[in-house]
Design brief:
Helix content: 10-25%
Order of helices and strands: EEEEEHEEEEEEHEHEHHEHEEHEHEHEH
Number of helices: 10
Radius of gyration: 20 Å
Bound molecules: zinc ion
CATH topology of the largest domain: Metallo-beta-lactamase, Chain A
Number of strands: 19
Strand content: 15-25%
CATH architecture of the largest domain: 4-Layer Sandwich
Number of domains: 2
CATH superfamily of the largest domain: Ribonuclease Z/Hydroxyacylglutathione hydrolase-like
Largest sheet: 7 strands, mixed
CATH class of the largest domain: Alpha Beta
Strand order of the largest sheet: 7-8-9-10-11-18-19
Length: 359
C-alpha cells in the first residue's frame, strides 16, 4: 500500500514528501499555516509558509521575529518531491486550503472554510483532488446557515430597537475574522438599505488592533471608534459595540450602562448554546461550513477519499460511507477542547480582558 501523502503525527498533520507540517500543534522546522486563528497558528516553529493575503494577520499572531514566507494564491512551489500550492478557503482573511501533489496524486487539506459570501476574504475555491481532508466543525444535518444578508438585517433591526430605548448593543464575535465580518456586513447592509446608522460603532481593543490588515486588504469597513469610557458616554446608549466573547461578564462592559447583548456564531443555531451563552440574542453567523455546504464542497472536489477532522465527525463519516465515499476520521489534538469557534464561547484560547486590551 502506498504511503499517505498527509499523515497524522503527534506534532500534527505531516507531509513526508515535503518535510512539512500543516498547522502543527508543537514547534517544528517548517510549517505551512492555513490561517491565523490560535488553534491553527502557533509560535515557536523555525519557518512558516502562508498565503500572501494572510501574512499581515499571521504577523500579528506570531510576532515580529517569526520567519514567514508567503505564496500568492494558486502559485505552485516545489518542496522535496512534492508540489505545493495554496487556495482560498473563504474562512477569514488569507485563509488557505493546502494542495499537495506527489507523482500525480493530489491531496487537499481544507483548513477551516465556508461557502457563504464574506466581504473580508476571498471565496472558497473547490480544488480537484483524489483525497480531501475537510474540517467538520458543524458536521450534522441540523447545521444549516441562513443567508448572511438575512442575519445582518436582523442585527440592524436589533440595534435600532435597542438604540431607541437607550440601551447599548454589545455584539460578541471572535476578535479575528468574525468581528471584522460583522463590521463589514453591517456597513454594507446599511448602505444597501439606504439606512442611517442608529448610532456610532465602537470596537473593543482586541478587535481594534486587528483592523489595519483588513484596511490594507481593501475590506469595506465602517468608521469605528475604540470603545472606552469617553466614547461610551458620548454615544448615549445608541452605540453598537463589537467585542470578543471573553469581554462578556467582565468589568469592561460596565462602562456602557444599560446594555443588550448579542452573540454571533454557528452555535447559535442550537437553543441550548443560546441559553448557556446567556446573551440576549443569538445570531447564526458562522465562518465554518454547514452540513449542506460540506456535501457541496466534497462533491466539488471530485475526491474519492474524504478525511474529516475537527468536531463530531462520526455521523458525517457514516453518511459519506453509505453514499459510497471512502471516509474516515482524522484525529486532532483539539477534539472536545476550545477551537476557534468553541461552544463555550472562548476565543481561540485568548483572554482579552480590560487589563490587557483596554487599559
Ligand atoms: Zn479558524
Amino acid at each position: 500500500m502506498k504511503e499517505p501523502l498527509v499523515q497524522v503525527t503527534d506534532h500534527g498533520l505531516f507531509v513526508p514528501a515535503a518535510d512539512l507540517y500543516i498547522d502543527p500543534w508543537k514547534p517544528v522546522d517548517r510549517a505551512v499555516i492555513t490561517h491565523a486563528h490560535a488553534d491553527h497558528a502557533r509560535g515557536g516553529s523555525g519557518r512558516y509558509l502562508s498565503a500572501q493575503a494572510g501574512h499581515d494577520v499571521l504577523r500579528v499572531r506570531l510576532g515580529s521575529t517569526a520567519r514567514i514566507d508567503t505564496l500568492p494564491w494558486g502559485e505552485r512551489i516545489r518542496m522535496g518531491s512534492a508540489h505545493l500550492s495554496l487556495h482560498p478557503a473563504g474562512h477569514i482573511l488569507g485563509a488557505a486550503q493546502i494542495r499537495v501533489e506527489v507523482g500525480g496524486e493530489v491531496w487537499v487539506v481544507s483548513g477551516d472554510y465556508k461557502l457563504e459570501s464574506d466581504p473580508t476574504c476571498r471565496a472558497f475555491e473547490p480544488v480537484p483532488c483524489h483525497t480531501f481532508i475537510s474540517e467538520c466543525t458543524f458536521g450534522l444535518p441540523i447545521y444549516r446557515w441562513p443567508t448572511p444578508r438575512a442575519v445582518f438585517g436582523d442585527i440592524l433591526t436589533w440595534w435600532a430597537g435597542n438604540a431607541e430605548r437607550g440601551r447599548t448593543s454589545i455584539l460578541f464575535g471572535y476578535s479575528l475574522g468574525k468581528a471584522q465580518r460583522l463590521l463589514a456586513g453591517i456597513h454594507l447592509e446599511l448602505l444597501d438599505q439606504g439606512m442611517e446608522a442608529p448610532g456610532p460603532i465602537l470596537v473593543h481593543g482586541a478587535v481594534h488592533r486587528l483592523l489595519p490588515p483588513f484596511h490594507r486588504a481593501g475590506v469595506p469597513l465602517p468608521d469605528v471608534l475604540r470603545a472606552n469610557r469617553e466614547s461610551a458616554r458620548a454615544s448615549e446608549g445608541r452605540a453598537l459595540v463589537v467585542a470578543p466573547p471573553s469581554a462578556g461578564g467582565t468589568p469592561w462592559i460596565r462602562k456602557f450602562g444599560q446594555v443588550s447583548t448579542g452573540f454571533a456564531s454557528g452555535w447559535m443555531r442550537i437553543r441550548g448554546h443560546r441559553r448557556r451563552r446567556g446573551g440576549d440574542r443569538g445570531f447564526v453567523l458562522s465562518d465554518h461550513v454547514d452540513w449542506p455546504g460540506l456535501l457541496t464542497a466534497i462533491r466539488a472536489t471530485g475526491a474519492e477519499r474524504i478525511g474529516l477532522t475537527h468536531g463530531t465527525t462520526g455521523p458525517a463519516v457514516r453518511f459519506l460511507r453509505e453514499e459510497g465515499w471512502d471516509a474516515w476520521n482524522v484525529p486532532t489534538r483539539f477534539e472536545g477542547e476550545a477551537g476557534s469557534e468553541a461552544p463555550d464561547g472562548s476565543d481561540s484560547g485568548e483572554h482579552e480582558t480590560e487589563g490587557q486590551e483596554d487599559a
